[in-house]
Amino acid sequence: MSHIIKLIPVLWLAGCALAPVPPATGNWVIEPVSLYDSGHDKGTEIVSVQQSTLRAVLSNFATGEVDVLDVSQPQHLQRKARFNLKLSKGEELTSVAFHPVLDLFAAVIDVGNRPGRLEIRSATTGVLIDRIVVGFGPDSVVFSEDGKLAMIANEGEDFLFEPSSKQFFSPEGSISTVRLSQSGHIVSHKNLELANAINYEGFIVSKGGRFMEREIDWNGDGIISKNMDFDGNGKIDKKKVLLGYFEGQDVYGTETKGEQKILIPIKTHSPALLEPEYIAISPDAKKAYVTLQEDDAVAVVDLISEQVISYYGLGASQHKTDARYDGWVKFEQSMTGLREPDGITTVANGRYFVTADEGDTDSDTSTPAEGQPVSGGRSVSVFDAATGVLLGDTGNQLDELAFANKVYPERRSNKKGSEPEMVVSFDLDGVPFVAVGMERAGSVGLISLADPFHPTVIALGKIGGDEGKSPEGITHFTVDGEHYLLTANEMSGTVECFKIIRKEPDAQN
What we know:
By secondary structure, this protein is an all-beta fold. It has 1 helix and 39 strands. A 5-stranded mixed sheet has the order 1-24-23-22-21, with no helix packed on it. It has a 5-stranded antiparallel sheet with strand order 18-19-20-17-29, with no helix packed on it. Strands 2-39-38-37 form a 4-stranded antiparallel sheet, with no helix packed on it. The longest helix is centred in the C-terminal third of the chain and has 8 residues. 49% of the residues are buried.
C-alpha cells in the first residue's frame, strides 16, 4: 500500500471563548542567580543539560568549541572542560545535545553545500566516539528521553547561483533518525525526505508575497559581501536589482545589503523550500514534531515506521500589537501574524506540542495591506498533538510584559517584536509550564499551561548586561527539588542561570 501524506487544514483561531477560566497557578517569579562568561564576545548558542549528573554542554558557533559546565551549584556555574572540535574552513558547529544517560554528547556540523555530519563525543575527554554523514545544513540535534534515538533537523538553507543560466538552487531539507546502541555507538541511520507540498491545502502563501533573506555568494568570489554594485553602474544604491530566478520566480538583491540578504521568494512549496528547524520527540518516542519555519508548518514523523506521515499548517495569531516604530509604544494595531515557529516542545504527557512563534520571512512590501499576514505570531501557541488543532496562544502577552519590564524592543515593533525563539517545557507542582527565550527583548518568559486554551504569561526574567544578549538555546533542570533555567546568549558569549521561585502571597491579603 502506498504511503500517503496527509495535511491537516489550518485553523486560524482557537475556540477560546468555549474554554473554562484558567485555574490559579500560583505566583511564580524568575530570578537570575548567576552568569557564566565563556570568555568570547559571542557564539554561545545552544545549551543542553544532563539531569542525572547536573552537567551541561554549550556550543559556540563562532569558535567551534563545546564547553562542559557543572550546574550542580546554580549560583556558581563552573566550566569543567572545553573541547575544540577542530573544524575545517567553512564548517560550523550548529547544535549540541547531552545524552540523557551516557557520558556522551552529540554535535552537528554544517559543512556548507555538502551534507553535514553528526559527531558523538565523550563528555569527559571530548574524544570522538562515532560519526556519520547526515543531510544538508544540519541545524539542531535532540535525543529521545531514553537516549536510544537521536534526531537531526537538516535545514538545507544554503543557496547556490549558476551565472550562465541565472538560476538559484538549494539542496533539499531532510530529517535524520539515528539509532544508538547501549554504549552510544551508531547502529543505524536514515534520512527522511519531505514531501513536495505544492498545492497542499493548509500551507500559506500570502497574496502580497513573502521572501527569505539568504546569504549567497552571487559573484562566486568566495566572500559574502555586505554591499555590492549588482547592476554594474559604478554606484551602490538602496535599490532592488533582479539577480536571477528560483523555480521560475524572480530573485532580487538590494545593493546596500549586498550578498548578505538576497531575497528568495516563497511562492512555491517544493522540497527545496521545506527547511526543518527544530524537533520535539514525544515522551514515548513514537512520534516527533518538526518545525518548518518558513512554511508556517510542522511535519509529523512516525518513529516506528520512520516516515513523515502528515503536516500541520499552523495558521496565524490575531491580536493587538504595536506595529509602528515611531517612538511610541501603543498596543493598538490589529495584527495577523503567521506563526512561523522556531522552537517546539511537547508537554510531559505528550498531549500537546507548544511552539515559539518567532517568524523568519518578510513581505515584499514595507507596508502590508490591511489583513495581509505578516511574519511571526509574537506568541507562544499550544496545539493538540494528535490532530494539529490550535488550542490557544498567548496573543500579545509577551510583548506587553516585556514593555512593563522596560525591555520591549520598540525599534522592532514594525518587524517581529520581542521574537520568541526557543521553548522548553516542565511541570511546577503538577501544572504544565513552558519557558521561552525572547531574542530581541533579552529576557525569558514563564507561561502557565494550566488551561491550554488560555496560555498565560505570568513572569519575566531579564538577562544581565547592557548590550544585546539574544538568548537562543534554553533548557530546564532541577537541583534538590528547585527549578532552574539556562539560556545561551549568542551575542554576548554568556549563559544566564535563572531560578523559578514561588512568591508567597502578601500576608496582608
